[in-house]
Each structure stands twice: as C-alpha cells, then as structure tokens.
Automatic annotation (TrEMBL):
Enzyme Commission number(s): 7.4.2.8
Name of the gene: secA
Domain SecA family profile: residue ranges: 9-590
One Pfam family here: P-loop_SecA
One BP term from GO: protein transport by the Sec complex
GO cellular component: cell envelope Sec protein transport complex; cytosol; plasma membrane
Protein name: Protein translocase subunit SecA
Subcellular location: Cell membrane; Cytoplasm; Membrane
Main location group: membrane
Family that this chain belongs to: Belongs to the SecA family.
Length: 775
C-alpha cells in the first residue's frame, strides 16, 4: 500500500507541477537493471566493450533489454573515455530521447552526454543521426568531446562547420552520427537541391534528428527561414535617398507602429522627401520607383538599429541573430534592405542576389522520420511542440535538488532609476567576492552598462556578438572569485559556469559566499528566456541566486501592455515600486509577447504548409531528372531533329548531362520565380480581408494554379534552349544559351511573416494606404 500511495503521489505531482510531461515510470524501472549490469561490463576490455555494443546492431528490435544494455555500455564507455560516470538522470534522458521525446534537463545536468548515448543508440539500430545544435562552436565541441565515447561503442562521428569543403562535408555526413548547427545542416540541404550531378550531393537521406537546445531551435527559430541566394550583379544603393532619409525625424517626418515592424512617412515627411528629390510626386505614377527606395531606406533608418540588429565590423554589415544574440555568419537581409543598410552606414554595396530556395526550420525537421530533443526549458512551450511537431515533453528530475534562490523582481518607475539600482546591486554583491552574471537585452545595452560600471571602478568582462568567438572561454570563467560578466542573451548556453572558474580552484570559497548571482536587466519577451538566464546559476545543486530588474517603461511593457493601471506609486527617492499591480502588468506584457510569438508561428506554419507540399512535389521531379535519363528522354521526344543533330556531335553520356543541366536549370529558375511570386502575393493578400475573403484561402487559390504551370513550362523552356544551343569545339556552350549558375551563394536572414493576425495586418495596410492618399 505505501508503494502504491507513493506511485500515485508521484503521478499527481507530475500532473500538477509538469503539465504536458510524459510518464517516466517505465524508464525509471530500468535503472536498477542497468546498475546490475555495471559490475559485469566493468570487467570487459575496450575491445570486448566495442564488440558487445556491436551486437546491438544484429538485434531485430530495440526493446527494454536492448535499452538496458545500451545504457550500461554507454555509462561504462563514458567512465573510461571521459572519467565521467553517467548519473541515473542522464540515462533517463537517454531513454527519453530514444523514445522520441523532448527531454527537459536542467542546466549542468549532462544533456550533452545524454544526447550522445541516445545518438549512439539510434546508430546501433542502423539509423543515420544528425545532432543539431544552435551554433557551430557547440557542434564541433560536442562532437570532439564525445568522440572517445562513440569510439568505444563502435560508432563513427563527424561534424560540419562553415569552413569545410564539399568533400569534407560529404565525409562528415557519411559518419553514423553527424553534429552540426541547424543553419549549417539547413544550408547544406538547400545546396544539395541545386546540384546537377549525383556525385555533388553531400547529404545522404536523413533518418534521426536529436535537437540540442530544442526550444530555441524549434520555437524561437521557427519563423526565421533559411534562405539561399545566388549572385546576380552588384547591388545599387540609392545613396541620395539614404542621405535624405537620414535627416528625417520620428514623430515629425515618419511614424512607426508599436512593435517596430512598420514605418511610414507623415504628410510633412513626404513633402520634405519630395522636395529634396527634385520636386517629384512620390505617390504618382512617375514616383513609384523612388517611393520603393524611400520605403526601404526608411525601414533601414527607423527600424534597424546598429549594435542591436547588426554590427559594423571589418567594413561590413554583420547581422545579429535576435534569438541567440550572436552574429549570423554569412547571412544578410533580402536585397534592397541590405543595400539600404550599407548606404545608411556609408559602406560600399555588396552583390545583389536572387532567392534560389528556402526552408523553414520546421520544414527542415519534417524531413527526418524521427525527431527528439533536449533543453532546460521545454515545458513552457510544450503545447507548441505538440501542435507543430507532434512531440511530447519528458521532464527529467535533477540529480541534486536545485537550491538556487530566485528572488522577486525589483520594479522601478523609469529605466534610469532601474539602472542606478542595478549598479548598486552589482557593487554590493561584488564587494562580497561573489561572481556575478548580468544578462542584458542587446549589444548596445551590454556595452553601455560596461562603460557605466568602469566609470565607478567596477570592471567587467563583456560577452556579446562582437566577441562571440571567445564565448566559451569568457563564460567558463564567469564563476571565479570577484568576476563580473555582462552578457547579451547568448549568455553562454551550452557552456557550464563552474563555481571557482573552469578549473574549480576557488569552488569552496565561492560556495561559502553563496555561489553565482545572476542579474537580469529586464524581463525578456518570453518566460523561457528568463528561465534560461536564471538557470546559469545553481547547476548540479550549487548555491546561487537570481533576480530580475524591471521598469514600467521597459520595451516589453511599452510594446505589449502600455496601459499601466493608475494609482501605482513609486518610492520618492529610489523610484522602486512594491505594488503588486506593477508585477502583474509586467507579467501580462510578457504573456502578450508570448501570444504574439505563437500567432506568428501559427501564421508562418499556415502559409508555408502549401509551399512545402509544392516543394516536395517539385523536388521529387528534380531528383528523377538528376538520377535518371528522364531529361534526355523528354527532350528527344519533344525536339527529335535537334536531339539527333546533337547526338552526332556528342557522346551519349555527354548529351544526357547536357539535357539534365538544361532542365534542372529551368526547374530551379522557375521555382525561384515561383517563390518570388508567392512573396508578392503574401505581401498583399491581407487586403482581401476587406472583401470578406479569407486571406489564406485566397493565397491557396492563387498559389496552386501557378504551381501547376511549372512542370510544363520547364519542358517548354528546355526545348527552346536545346534548339538554341551551339556546338563548339569543346562541345556545348550552355552559358551562351543562358544556362548560367550563380558564381557564388549566400544566405538571407528574414522573418517569415505574417507578423500579426490577418485582421491586424489588414488594418496596418489600410492605415498605410490612407496616409499615402492624405499625402
């Protein structure tokens, strides 16, 4: 009876404390069996351990017996290779991942090891595994770190990063387990969709994805599609327009909406611009081109902020990934906007490009028959993970109880009063010798705070997108005696902050002082991000504390809940507010922000489902053209005389490749044109709500007939190209016939819209149109 009561109590506790979490009792019951095997596997030589792991490859099924065997062998492999005996909770995480769940494990609980053992388990079942990370550094670090464990288990491992050649990438993907950043794996997927020869492919068909920092990848990144572009020619930035827009003032010459996603000229602004550009009529037929240039320049000027949205480094504009706080390597905005930002910063314009293909993170993960993941903050987005990915969350208990002290928010009337209080808090804690980690909202804030601390003799180390290459080294020392680390949202996810520093030399001293103290300079737009920052302290049962400072005039409140209730009073001297109504307002603002993000995710998903379906259908056709003689057969049938002429001049193999390249070129070009067409449709589709039409339905009615024209058009254009090709001494000159591939490719960072609900977007479009008419 006591055992029954205990089990019922445990289940009730899970139901109350961890909504949307899966039942772990089945896996917990296997831990004792794993422990029973421990003494037996300890006696094995390295070769015997590898051989025994290899026997799992011969099993017809992977049930509880095989799971127990894997965990026992994996624990022993980790002990030998890394001198780390896996905790029971790590093995629970491994089991949850092998069951296809998102496992929630707190910071410092050993997610990397749990993921590695799960990846080995999938590999020993004969499945190819990609361990998907949030950045290239973590992908390489984890692959190299876990390599000795994989080696003992007889599993091959590799990783991909931007510096690798095509051959090196192919070798990395040939391993049973491949680590890579989500962007790197996604862009390799897009590059493979542009090849014209089978031997140019680098990725085999994917089978299993294990996603590290799963909430960041699957939720935060969901609306940021990976976009591949190819060079066309040098971009032309309208420098004259940039100089005019630079002189405009907010409120007088232009206005922006509360969420900072749209900007438009006022009547006064339009008049100033028209006069400065020679007396043109921006809203007349003759001014359409200049109006487009003005709008994109205004977007760059009013909505994109240096050191928040981008950096200028090494004479180039480098974008900052908003959800990670890191520089988005090799990424840029869509053309026009990129050139406008470069003109704003008085930098030379880079090449212009055309979008070749794109893929959302959600679509990328949909390619894998099996998906699992791990993170420290999954329960908060459990419903989204279920809705968009059909994934359930398994909450893994900590190895040691969390004793971190999460202090109540300290709220102030104004940002300046809040900043003074933060400085005072840092000084007070620093004087005790306790290490401090300060989490800021962006690069600009982190550097501003660092300057203010330096002026009052409080030196700190800054971690932001400017020095992300030193991220691991900086964050590893954030737990040393007297350390003050000011970080953006990147905050070193994936790297533990060990008390006493990387070598733990002052661990006992720091522990006695109370451990790492975390300070948030404002609440984030998501409670998960708050939790991630707090989670940097209190790892593995360490002492620690965390506190957030907030203001009723923070961007979070002003953008999402600006109507603050009356009667909230602040202390006359410090500006601090103790009224619980202020706390409720900030919590409400955060919930609104989370709701907006969810609506964005839903809208992105609704609009991209059809596009992904069309992409899959066209990719099947492309793959058939790539791997078979279909192109030659179709063109011979449609252009027999010309095909016969070419057959006399070329070998059969060469002619087949010529036909293949022609048809693939037109397929890729038409798909690129189709994507551009759909983008135009989506930018205007919301206005159809005015006619009581459903924008999504109208999008489908427009997109489907347009797609059905692509395949016939491919053949028609290919026949025309074949007729026009010239035979030279070297064979066929396809470039002279217009079949030219981009000389270089790069990636775009864009936000896959519709940013708001259909109704809200419609109102914004109408408001913009009315303002133009008034002008």
């Amino acid at each position: 009876m006591p055992a029954l009561i205990s089990r019922v109590g445990k289940r009730l506790r899970r139901l109350i404390e961890r909504p949307a979490s899966v039942e772990l009792t089945r896996y917990e019951a296997l831990l004792s069996a794993v422990e029973e095997l421990e003494a037996e596997v300890e006696k094995l030589t390295d070769a015997e351990l590898t051989e025994r792991a290899g026997k799992l490859r011969l099993e017809d099924e992977f049930g509880e017996a095989q799971l127990t065997e894997l965990c026992a062998l994996g624990r022993e492999a980790a002990r030998r290779a890394l001198d780390e005996r896996s905790f029971d909770v790590q093995l629970l995480g491994t089991m949850g991942l092998l069951a296809g769940h998102i496992v929630q494990m707190e910071t410092g609980e050993g997610k990397t090891m749990a993921g590695a053992l799960a990846a080995a388990g999938y590999a020993l079942q004969g499945k190819r595994v990609h361990v998907i990370s949030v950045n290239d550094y973590l992908a390489r670090r984890d692959a190299e770190w876990m390599a000795p464990v994989y080696r003992l288990l007889g599993v091959s491992v590799g990783w991909v990063e931007p510096s690798l050649t095509r051959d090196e990438r192919r070798e990395a993907y040939a391993a049973e387990v491949t680590y890579g950043a989500v962007s790197e794996i996604g862009f390799d997927t897009l590059r493979d969709r542009l090849v014209t020869r089978v031997d140019e492919l680098v990725q085999p068909e994917p089978e299993v994805a294990i996603v590290d920092e799963a909430d960041s990848v699957l939720v935060d990144e969901a609306r940021v599609p990976l976009v591949m572009a190819g060079s066309v020619d040098a971009a032309v930035a309208d420098v004259e327009v940039a100089n005019v827009v630079r002189r405009l003032r907010p409120g007088l010459h232009y206005e922006t909406d509360s969420d900072g996603r749209n900007a438009w000229l006022t009547t006064a602004g339009a008049s100033v611009v028209e006069k400065a550009l020679g007396g043109i009529d921006l809203y007349g037929d003759s001014g359409a081109d200049r109006l487009a240039a003005v709008n994109v320049a205004l977007h760059a000027h009013a909505l994109l902020t240096r050191d928040v949205d981008y950096l200028v480094r090494d004479g180039k504009v480098q974008l900052i990934n908003a959800s990670r706080g890191r520089v988005a390597e090799l990424q840029r905005w869509p053309d026009g906007l990129q050139a406008a930002v470069e003109a704003k910063e008085q930098l030379p314009a880079t090449d212009r490009g055309e979008i070749l293909d794109s893929i959302t993170v959600q679509a990328l993960l949909a390619r894998y028959p099996q998906v699992a993941g791990m993170t420290g903050t999954a329960v908060a987005v459990a419903e989204q993970l279920r809705e968009f990915y059909r994934l359930e969350v398994a909450v893994i208990p900590p190895n040691k109880p969390n004793v971190r002290e999460d202090q109540p928010d300290r709220i102030f009337a104004s940002p300046s009063q809040k900043l003074r209080a933060i400085q005072a808090e840092i000084r007070e804690v620093h004087e005790t010798g306790r290490p401090i980690l300060v989490g800021t909202q962006d690069v600009a804030e982190s550097e501003e705070l660092a300057e203010k601390l330096a002026k009052v003799d409080l030196p700190c180390v800054v971690l932001n997108a400017r020095n992300d290459a030193e991220e691991a080294a900086i964050i590893a020392e954030a737990g040393t005696y007297g350390a003050v680390t000011v970080s953006t949202q990147m905050a070193g996810r994936g790297t533990d902050i060990r008390l006493g520093g990387a070598d733990g030399r002052d661990r006992e001293r720091i522990t006695e002082l109370g451990g790492l103290h975390v300070i948030g300079t404002a609440r984030y737009p998501s409670s998960r991000l708050d939790g991630q920052l707090r989670g940097r302290s209190g790892r593995q049962g360490d002492p620690g504390s965390a506190v957030f400072f907030a203001s009723l005039n923070d961007d979070l409140v002003l953008s999402n809940a600006p109507d603050v209730p009356e009667g909230i009073e602040a202390d006359d001297e410090t500006g601090e507010i103790t009224d619980q109504a202020a706390q409720r307002q900030i919590n409400h603002a955060q919930r609104v922000a989370e709701g907006v993000h969810l609506e964005i995710h839903r809208n992105t998903w609704r609009y991209t489902r059809l596009i992904e379906h069309q992409r899959r259908d066209l990719l099947k056709h492309r793959d058939e053209l790539l791997r078979t003689k279909l192109a030659a057969e179709q063109l011979e049938k449609a252009a027999p005389e010309r095909y016969a002429e070419l057959a006399e001049a070329l070998t059969e193999e060469k002619l087949e490749q010529v036909c293949r390249e022609i048809m693939l070129y037109h397929l890729d070009q038409l798909w690129s044109d189709h994507l551009a067409f759909l983008t135009d449709v989506r930018e205007s589709i919301h206005l159809r709500a005015l006619a009581r039409e459903t924008p999504l339905d109208e999008f489908h009615r427009t997109a489907i007939p347009a797609f059905h024209k692509i395949v016939p058009e491919i053949e028609e254009r290919s026949v025309k190209t074949l007729q026009e090709t010239e035979i030279t001494a070297d064979g066929i000159d396809l470039a002279a016939s217009g079949v030219r591939r981009p000389t270089s490719t790069w990636t775009y960072l864009v936000h896959d819209n519709p940013f708001d609900s259909d109704f809200e977007q419609t109102l914004k479009q109408v408001r913009s149109l009315l303002k133009r008419k008034k002008s």
